[in-house]
Amino acid sequence: MSAPAPRLVTLKAEPLTPEAYAPFGSVVDLGRAQLHCNDGQYFVEMLTLPPRTEPVRRINRHFDCVQLFAPHPQAGTRPKPMLIVVAPPWLSAERFDPNQVRAFVADGTQAFTFNIGTWHIGPRALDGTPLTLVNVQGERSNEEHTEEIDLVELTGSAVEFELPA
Questions:
Q1: Backbone Cα Rg of the chain
Q2: What phi, psi does 98 have (nearest 5°)?
Q3: Is residue 97 domain-resident?
Q4: Lowest mean pLDDT among 11-15, 23-27, 38-42, 104-108
Q5: Is residue 1 part of a domain?
Q6: How many domains does one find in the chain?
């Protein structure tokens, strides 16, 4: 007997603006971004992330650093719009509410950060193809300084998004 399908929570995604995104991180202009790492060093890597295809079932956060994602422009290609999924850092894993998840649509030219403790998933391309980004984060974020939850297991819900017109 298979497990019942999760309840889908449908939320409206909104355009990525510095004001709307401020509780979760910052939208980085061509100037500078302040990064902070509590323990250890930062590392930089190229990440290729899958496109948006399914509702969000897992979400995580890092307690040691501000994480930065920047588009990786490739010659002859246009910027790829992407979906950024976040939830407030003050939500505990035990009382996580899927209705508190927010989503933003970036135009593919904007870099952005996740504040320390902001729940998130890796950005997802909206055009059905993988997305390559530059990722800057603390070297210990992936192991000892990360908390991850399974939304379906914890709340019985997965989250999907309506995109702005």
A1: 16
A2: -60, -25
A3: yes
A4: 38-42
A5: no
A6: 1
How far is the C-alpha of 137 from the C-alpha of 119, rounded, in Å?
Answer: 15
pLDDT (0 to 100) of residue 55: 93
Give the domain CATH number at 115: 2.60.120.480
From CA 94, how far away is CA 108, in angstroms rounded?
Answer: 34
Question: From the DSSP assignment, how many helices (H) and strands (E) are in the chain?
Answer: 2, 14
Q: Are 123 and 33 in contact (CB under 8 A)?
A: no
* Segment 24-54, tens digit of pLDDT: 999 987 555 555 556 666 677 888 888 888 9
Side-chain-side CA neighbours of residue 156 (13 Å): 2
Chain segment 80-101, per-residue pLDDT in tens: 899 999 999 999 999 999 999 9
Structural domain includes residue 2 = no
